């Protein structure tokens, strides 16, 4: 029988082995030059528009986050003119591990930028895989409400709100299934700021802005509800489907995105997005183009940009700019900031999305 494992030891064996070797190397000596199948990511929707991405470096997380946003201030102000409130979407994939989740000082940097510029209220909203409010408490988010009274900061558990809009994904068997996305993430009255982190991932190789928004939007049962359900799990139907389903969700959410800031002051390498180890990248990235911001983030992590399927799909379909030659980087030369992040131990299997389809692909994450 011709199986996926047979394929890895024959046609795909050379590049699969190289991936495995890379995953065992450290962040300073690892190589991201493994042999992968040739991939074509020609744009379906041509995108010649240039995108601005700011990069700021330094030893104070809060300061570089604020400075990165200040670098795109003119673009942000254009976007929020008709909005009624700012929604900050942190990445709290874990409610216990601070390294895996948005730091309160990252939020302080965003709020420092907003204070004196934005006149309306601010909502910090999340749909954590666990109990959202536990994460807010553990990471000291309630303190922000007293520190920024003029911004009327409010903490919202999207699962508890339980208001949703439907979208549709592929199942592991390539059928269509509905998914409930938090209605607030599709609210035209909100100006959304993504507070992402530079992290490796156990399914899609790297997670930053787009991953934070697309997997933060699906809901699960609200606190106290006896019937358990979790629509986030529907994204993990197979290594190929995860990339495609994230792309579908990004297309749905894109009209509501404002700006993003990626906290790379301390990134995560290895077994991300929740169990990896720290990398002192000491950088922050900001843009109103989430795809462009993530492209710069991929560069700072030393990852081959062709490996990130969902970002390439978004680029192909005009969601944002992924061509580094068409991204204006305001900040230091990227090569002086970049570090080679050690990838997840499952990187060999993660990269199977790039090869020919021999079987239903594995579930990861």
Number of self-contained structural domains = 1
Distance between the termini: 27 Å
The value of Rg in angstroms is: 20 Å
CATH architecture: 3-Layer(aba) Sandwich
- List the uncertain runs: 1-31
What proportion of the residues form beta strands (DSSP E)?
15-25%
Helix content: 25-40%
Average pLDDT over all residues: 90
| Category by helix and strand content | alpha/beta
The tally of helices reads 14
Largest sheet: 10 strands, mixed
Shape: globular
Total DSSP E strands? 12
Ordered list of secondary-structure elements with their pairings:
Layout: H1 4-8, H2 13-24, E1 51-57, H3 61-70, H4 73-79, E2 85-90, H5 104-114, E3 122-126, H6 132-138, H7 143-147, E4 154-157, H8 158-161, E5 164-170, E6 176-182, E7 190-201, E8 205-207, H9 209-216, H10 239-253, E9 257-269, E10 277-279, E11 283-287, H11 290-300, H12 309-316, E12 327-330, H13 334-337, H14 347-350
Helix pairs in contact: 3-5, 9-10, 10-12
């Amino acid at each position: 029988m011709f199986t996926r494992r047979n394929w890895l030891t024959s046609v795909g064996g050379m590049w699969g082995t190289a991936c495995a070797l890379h995953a065992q190397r450290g962040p300073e000596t690892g190589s991201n030059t493994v042999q992968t199948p040739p991939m074509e990511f020609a744009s379906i929707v041509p995108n010649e528009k240039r995108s601005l991405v700011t990069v700021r470096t330094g030893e104070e997380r809060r300061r570089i986050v604020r400075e990165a946003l200040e670098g795109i201030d003119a673009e942000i102000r254009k976007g929020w003119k008709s909005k009624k409130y700012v929604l900050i979407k942190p990445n709290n994939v874990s409610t216990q591990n601070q390294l895996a989740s948005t730091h309160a000082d990252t939020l302080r940097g965003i709020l420092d930028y907003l204070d004196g510029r934005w006149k309306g209220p601010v909502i910090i909203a999340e749909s954590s895989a666990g109990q959202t409010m536990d994460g807010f408490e553990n990471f000291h988010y309630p303190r922000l409400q007293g520190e920024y009274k003029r911004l009327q900061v409010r903490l919202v558990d999207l699962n508890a709100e339980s208001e949703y809009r439907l979208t549709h994904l592929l199942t592991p068997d390539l059928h269509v299934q509905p998914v409930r996305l938090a209605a607030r993430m599709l609210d035209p009255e909100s100006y959304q700021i993504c507070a992402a982190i530079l992290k490796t991932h156990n399914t899609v190789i790297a997670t930053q802005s787009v991953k934070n928004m697309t997997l933060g939007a699906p809901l699960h049962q609200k606190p106290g509800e006896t019937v358990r359900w979790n629509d986030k799990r529907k994204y993990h139907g197979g290594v190929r489907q995860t990339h495609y389903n994230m792309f579908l969700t990004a297309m749905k959410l894109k009209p509501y995105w404002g700006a993003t800031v990626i906290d790379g002051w301390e990134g995560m390498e290895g077994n991300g997005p929740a169990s990896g180890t720290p990398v002192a990248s000491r950088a922050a990235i900001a843009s109103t183009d989430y795809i462009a911001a993530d492209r710069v983030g991929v560069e700072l992590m030393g990852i081959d940009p062709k490996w990130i399927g969902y970002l390439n799909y978004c680029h192909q379909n005009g969601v944002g700019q992924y061509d580094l030659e068409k991204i204006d980087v305001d900040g230091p030369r990227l090569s002086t900031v970049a570090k080679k992040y050690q990838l997840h131990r499952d990187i060999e299997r993660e990269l199977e999305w790039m090869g020919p389809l021999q079987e239903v692909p594995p579930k990861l994450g």
